Amino acid sequence: MYLFGIPVLTKFFAQQMQPPGSATRRHSPLSSDANWPSCAVSTNISPSGLPVSPVSDTSHNFNTPRLFREALRFINATFAPKEIFVAEFGFPVYGESDMELGQARYDLGRTNFFHDYLLEILGAYNEDKIPVKGAISWGLMDNLEWSSGLEVRFGFQYVNYTTQERYYKQSIHYLTQFFEHYIQ
After folding, report:
1. Residue 159 DSSP class
2. Residue 157 backbone phi and psi in degrees, to 5
3. How far is 113 from 122, CA to CA, in rounded Å?
4. How many angstroms separate the CA atoms of 169 and 148, rounded?
5. Fewer C-beta neighbours within 10 Å, C or N terminus of the chain?
6. 74-109 pLDDT per residue, tens
7. pTM: predicted TM-score of the whole model, two decimal places
8. Which residues, 6+ apart, have CB-to-CB distance to 21 below 8 Å?
9. Exposed/middle/buried for 171, CB within 10 Å: 0-12, 13-18, 19+?
């Protein structure tokens, strides 16, 4: 395989629908096709009973960098791609659309997300020798999200949708410092 692109949303755990040893096995049809039963459900609750990460502003984005690195190891071992590109990774800070400008610009959740993921990507490249060749963040500025409209913000720039004014958030300054420190 020449190239493998992987988006970063989150990692889920699978749980059996019926406890082991049960007399009857429960199945649930998948919503897309009733002919394909499912005996497990996915969850963002870890076996320890805790969520995989703090909540984000969507139901499918969590800060799970260690699980992502495990996925990179699996992809590398299973498919042996010459190059891996991390595609479309970003983090919507919970409630950011409802925050005042100053609060929204201090996007600690997004900053932590990029810090955690970029360190794991570097570790995968340097320590695990996984051929990660690039990472594409989502997104440069707040924008229209397909299913959420203007309510969910992923950007490094805060956009005032009325005036179109843009303001840099803390995360872009952190990203600049990260690349100055780690990338030569």
Report:
1. E
2. -120, 135
3. 14
4. 21
5. C
6. 999 999 999 999 888 899 999 999 999 999 999 999
7. 0.81
8. none
9. buried
